[in-house]
Amino acid sequence: xxxxKQMRTWLDDMKLDHPLVIxxxxxxxxxxxxxxxxxxxxDTDVNYYRAGIWKPRTRPGMFEGVGALGLKWLQKVKxxxxxxxxxxVANAAHVKLALEHxxxxxxxxxxxxVSPFIMQEIADALGExxxxxxxxxxxxxxxxxxxxxxxxLKTAGVKNLGAIHRGFSTYEKTKYRNIPExxxxxxxxxxxxxxxLINDPSHITGNREMIFDVCQTALDLNxxxxxxxxxxxxxxxxxxxxxxxxxxxxxxxxxDLKIRKESDPEAEYNSELSNLRAQIDVVDAQLxxxxxxxxxxxxxxxxxxxxxxxxxxxxxxxxxxxxxxxxEGESKGLSEEFVLKMFKAIHQESINHQEKVINS
Length: 360
Fold this sequence. Notes:
8 strands, transferase activity, CM_dom_sf, chorismate mutase activity
């Protein structure tokens, strides 16, 4: 991944006065649907019109896309609206067909990125294409796997590369469809600051009501653009209905987002400060999430102690935890005083949870 700055020329050459915007339906359903949405988006901030035509589904029997026919519809979108087009490719056959139909931007989905075999097959099919190719993070939180997929494409000769952050799968139920794991995206940016990074709030949230907040966090973290699934009738979409917004809603989101520009030293300072504060917000949210999980475990301990009629406070166990955490804190640059105060507060909250269970 050396000389990553050379990869960013496609984004620099666009000379946009706003973040890159990719929008369109999760799935191309009918020619009429594809064209109607495109015409609703053509005079907005949208730079690329997206539509999935091959839809890898978790289980068989679900709508899996219209296939190559959808490429004809995307050609009509370009002819009628002048918008550039993009779609997902998952194998060499998809790549061949997409290139033959002059699709402007291709993205590789999370289920493909997870497999080095698939990524190599796609890289070989793409060769030294001038088309823009974006790589979504793999479904599992593995930064090396994500970067490895991009490296395969670069080695094959793909000139215009970028990445899409779409969140990561988890067995645990959270408010997100795919947990963002923002720290992985931040580490990605730190390693390769000149490789364009696009955020996909639709797949992160799985909920149209959360799209704006995730978009704003992404921009605060200096993401280069957004990919938002858009449908004129999202409630009746053939796939991922809950996460798509209407074109009108997308336009409103774009108006309401705070975009920080760097045109002078003061603006640069404010942008950097906003980015660091956004990183703190991410970590703070993770702290609350972890503390919530810890207290759920405490509830379980309280239930067990109630069954066995055991006292809530176990001094030996508490002293062991405190000693271990003080040493661990010191290794992370945290003072003993801070660690003591923090874990005493956590311990008291844990006692409160257990007493509530025991006395219930």
